[in-house]
């Protein structure tokens, strides 16, 4: 129960200012794409299995979680189907590659176990088995010293083999690589498309730096390959950027294994490496018992969604029967810009404000006079800076003794802060901090500070979410405008969010409903191939209808690559924003129970009502810290 904070603090306290509620709408990202954000997503984004970059068996420092064996699925594989790679398979078999008979390769990327496997083959893909083995003679490598640019050297080797044509011993592999579609990769984004990333400034900067590195490397390659088309130079560099695998002897392009998708869930199906033996072979070893139709994925990089987007040109999603959901990335970090609006300093004397700002800059490296940046989820949970920072802003400090009191306050609030979040300790490994749960507010004065602090933190979250929402809306509008001003995609495949034309349900003179005489522009919402139908929304009036697939005019307009590529890039940007929003919303929801309960207590004018509600506060406080502890210790 809350007690009065001394005689100076009366029981009857006015409600804290800045009541929450309704200040940001639900995330619009992937609205028609039906990509939903898991509520409470922070719990799935726990920090665990800190394996090192790229391939190698030393990475498996922690036992990965085992998934239960699943029954074979009737439908499996990528949406765009499997690749035609008969020539590649024949060549790899001649090189002594093992395990090919178990696998299907996706057109763009991804490797799946076949739907029908014998008992002997199931034994081969059991936990600890070598699923695939690719000898070094099938790799494309570059011999360079440690000071050389390995990416540029590997791209040069790839271009060299392509220039040989059929005479190259790697011609089957090179031809297979050159049929991959990488046009969606951020390396090729235009300035207009890069503007979509303004809500993720760190990602935008990383892509700009990647494009500049690519430009410089392409200039060097042009001098070595003057007859090579410009697009081949960039394509080779992009292949290396998103498909090269590290080995004991350096970087390499390894057939089949370079087709695996990256896994950031903390529970990859396989681990890829060369067993520390220079010269290979490169193998994929199963980390669990695998079933037919299972996708083989490896954790090539322990990277955030932003880094995954920049390097690999992908954001991990998983398919479901009804929805496509962003996958939890246990290595994900989201930067949260924070600033303190003037109204939050209103009750703080100028001298105290100056002392607090100076101390935050000096001790924590946070410049709240401008815009500082926090890291989620680390800053949102135990050992983080977010709530201690907001509490520091709102805790009253006497003017006369401000310097000493601010020092004392910052020591108390940040005593459990994790070293990796403090200046000069960025490389400290994140882990569970063995600290006791701080006590819940014990009186109305403490509760008022806590509520004000959480309102400030909520505003930081809401501001970030609002910027993501604006960018989602902008991308969505640009995709519509791009279609209306250009040609159709020319693709015969029904795509989510595609803008096309379709016939609609219209009433005939006899009163029956049939197909309209002329088509109208529409947006594809949700194809249903099993039933041969598709749900669309007509742009003219916003009406949604479920119509037969053959009512769609997938050939509307002449075939044109540009709108299709722009749509792919736009959907990729929307996927990134959706994943970022999921992290923000998870952190936001984590603190809401205590905040809303605290606001309710402060809003009550009757002591009996406040006392009854106050009895719930310790339990809500403990629940919040229990969740944080489970997130940190990766028990979920």
UniProtKB/TrEMBL annotation:
Entry-linked InterPro entries: SET_dom_sf (IPR046341), SETD3_SETD6_MTase (IPR050600)
Domain of life of the source: Eukaryota
Region of interest called Disordered, as start-end residue ranges on this chain: 57-81
Coiled-coil regions listed: none
Biased composition (Basic and acidic residues): 63-78
GO molecular function, one term: protein-lysine N-methyltransferase activity
PANTHER family recorded: UNCHARACTERIZED PUTATIVE METHYLTRANSFERASE (PTHR13271)
Protein name as annotated: SET domain-containing protein
Organism: Effrenium voratum
Taxonomic lineage of the native organism: Eukaryota, Sar, Alveolata, Dinophyceae, Suessiales
């Amino acid at each position: 129960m809350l007690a009065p904070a001394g005689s100076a603090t009366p029981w009857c306290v006015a409600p804290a200012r800045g009541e929450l509620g309704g200040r940001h709408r639900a995330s619009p990202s992937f609205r028609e794409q039906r990509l939903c954000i898991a509520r409470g997503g922070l719990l799935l984004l726990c920090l665990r299995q800190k394996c090192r970059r790229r391939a190698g068996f030393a990475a498996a420092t922690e036992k990965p979680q085992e998934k239960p064996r699943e029954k074979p699925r009737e439908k499996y594989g990528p949406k765009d189907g499997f690749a035609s790679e008969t020539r590649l398979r024949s060549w790899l078999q001649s090189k002594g590659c093992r395990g090919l008979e178990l696998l299907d390769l996706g057109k763009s990327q991804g490797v799946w176990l076949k739907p029908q496997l014998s008992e002997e083959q199931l034994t081969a893909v059991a936990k600890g088995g070598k699923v695939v083995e690719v000898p070094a003679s099938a790799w494309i490598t570059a011999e360079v010293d440690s000071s050389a640019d390995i990416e540029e050297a590997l791209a040069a080797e790839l271009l060299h083999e392509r220039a040989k044509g059929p005479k190259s011993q790697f011609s089957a592999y090179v031809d297979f690589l050159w049929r991959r579609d990488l046009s969606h990769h951020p390396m090729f984004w235009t300035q207009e498309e890069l503007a979509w990333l303004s809500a993720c400034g760190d990602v935008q900067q990383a892509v700009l730096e990647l494009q500049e590195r690519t430009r410089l490397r392409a200039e060097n390659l042009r001098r070595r390959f003057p007859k090579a088309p410009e697009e081949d130079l960039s394509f080779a560099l992009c292949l290396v950027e998103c498909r090269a695998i590290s080995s004991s002897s350096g970087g390499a392009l390894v057939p089949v294994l370079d087709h695996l998708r990256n896994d950031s869930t903390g529970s990859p199906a396989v681990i890829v490496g060369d067993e520390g033996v220079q010269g290979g072979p490169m193998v994929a070893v199963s980390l669990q018992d695998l079933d037919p139709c299972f996708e083989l994925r490896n954790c090539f990089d322990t990277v955030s969604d932003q880094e995954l987007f920049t390097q690999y040109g992908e954001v991990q999603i998983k398919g479901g029967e009804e929805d496509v959901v962003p996958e939890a990335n246990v290595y994900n970090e989201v930067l949260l810009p924070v600033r303190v609006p003037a109204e939050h300093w209103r009750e703080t004397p100028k001298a105290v404000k100056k002392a607090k700002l100076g101390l935050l800059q000096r001790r924590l490296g946070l410049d709240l006079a401008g815009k500082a940046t926090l890291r989620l989820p680390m800053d949102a949970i135990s050992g983080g800076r977010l709530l201690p920072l907001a509490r520091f802003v709102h805790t009253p400090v006497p003017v006369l003794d401000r310097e000493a009191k601010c020092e004392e306050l910052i020591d108390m609030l940040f005593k459990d802060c994790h070293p990796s979040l403090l200046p000069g300790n960025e490389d400290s490994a994140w882990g569970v901090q063995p600290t006791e749960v701080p006590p819940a507010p014990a009186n109305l004065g403490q509760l008022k500070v806590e509520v004000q602090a959480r309102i400030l933190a909520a505003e930081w979250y809401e501001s970030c979410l609002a910027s993501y929402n604006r960018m989602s809306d902008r991308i969505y509008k640009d995709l519509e405008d791009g279609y209306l001003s250009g040609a159709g995609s020319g693709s015969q495949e029904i795509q989510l969010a595609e803008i096309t034309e379709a016939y609609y349900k219209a009433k005939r003179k006899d009163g029956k409903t049939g197909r309209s005489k002329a088509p109208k522009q529409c947006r594809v919402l949700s194809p249903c191939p099993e039933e041969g139908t598709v749900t669309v929304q007509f742009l003219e009036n916003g009406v949604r209808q479920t119509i037969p697939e053959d009512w769609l005019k997938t050939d509307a307009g002449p075939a044109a690559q540009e709108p299709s590529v722009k749509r792919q890039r736009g959907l990729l940007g929307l996927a990134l924003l959706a994943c970022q929003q999921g992290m923000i919303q998870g952190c936001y929801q984590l603190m809401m129970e205590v905040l809303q309960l605290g606001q309710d207590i402060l809003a009550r004018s009757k002591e009996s009502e406040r006392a009854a509600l106050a009895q719930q506060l310790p339990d809500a406080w403990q629940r919040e810290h229990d969740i944080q502890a489970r997130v940190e210790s990766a028990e979920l």
